[in-house]
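Let's sit down with a protein and look at its sequence and fold side by side. Go ahead whenever you are ready, and we will take it from there.
>
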Amino acid sequence: MPQNTKPECASGNWSRRLYSSARCFIHELIGDEISTHSRYFDATIQVFSLPHDDGDIFRSIQCPKKSLAADLQELPAAEPESRRLFFLNGNFNHHFDVEGLLRNFKKAMHRGDRLTVVVYNSYLRGMYSLANSLGIRKGELPTTYFTQASLENIAKLAGFEITRTRQVGFLPFRLFGLGDFLNRFFQALPIIRWFGLAEVVLLRPVMASKTKPSLSILVPARNERGNIEGAILRLPDLGGAKRELIFVEGHSNDGTWEEILRVQKKHGDLIRIVALQQEGKGKADAVRTGLAQASCDLVTILDADLTMPPELLTRFYEAYELGLADFVNGSRLLYPMEGEAMRFLNWLGNIFFAKALSFVLQCPIGDSLCGTKLMARRDYERFCAWRKDFGDFDPFGDFELLFPMALLGLGTIDIPVRYRARTYGSTNIRRFRDGWILLKMTTLGLFRIRVRA
């Protein structure tokens, strides 16, 4: 052994090995959390890697394409329809002008891009100093720590919206295989969930549309013959934006299909009308059938019973166009409803599921079951990819839109509407049977998305 080399004490080696093992495990947890949304992006790009970043987290992230960029000038060119995920690991904790950093990022981003950031917990700052003083950690100490309120404030100042936050790393060891489950379980617990070692934050750039997007309007229709022509004549102009109307008829016995063909021929000069017949059953199948044929930039759903007035589609469209959200959701629970538009038990059920899903998805949802929702067609395609991985469990189609919306950080806003009474036909809802199915879906979301057991 060379004379100028001193053997390290056994306790020092043991402590460093313990720290290294815990660090690797935490990095795996962080990479696993980011992968829940990164795998549905076209590319993940880590920018401004810190000197002490060993790349473990980035290597563990799952995405079709990954790359590194030393600065924003090195970013590859991207099409506006692409969905890129930019990744920063700990940069906020080592920066003295995070607002300026975010402002520069926004200049390099398209509307569909997202920024995912690993932010280390301010409550645990003493752990880093202790680890450095004991010699079991190397690297520059973090200098800047954020509360949730300060992080939201800086994001807003820089033109971003925080759309999803997840705390990671409560237990730094596997504990005979229980570590993964316990860490995910603690993520869902009030108060405790704020004491994870790190937080994965997903940010959306708030941007208005640069051009006027076109809109595909899907109308699922079963036994709605008396409402078909009204659905066409009451559609708003949308400031001259290109529109198309897609009817999907679902095994009606009142002549709905014949009425769709009649109005298609009669009003085809007003708007492009697509007429489809559903092979499967249920609203979710009808929605999938229709949106698979959509050709416009944006897609929305309009229930054929017209209880959500078609004239209000202008407000959904404008909310998206202005950049207020990338997922616009109708809410029927604010204003008093017209007549017998919704039975009392149905109303209570709608309130319950809105509250339950807001908790499960950590995303404010005013009305989870309003049929009218608007999003980009490109994002809907990513929803379909998510559904293949998650499972085809939703017979109604609302939850399979809301779940990936929250997971991918689209950002949502509610459009309050006064729910109107039907003027033709009767509801297809079976409150108790359908309510039980929705409860099972909510519980599934709790364990597959919130806890991820």
Remarks:
- Residues 10-38 form the longest helix (29 residues).
- Residues 31 and 59 are 8 Å apart (CA to CA).
- The chain is about 35% helix and 15% strand.
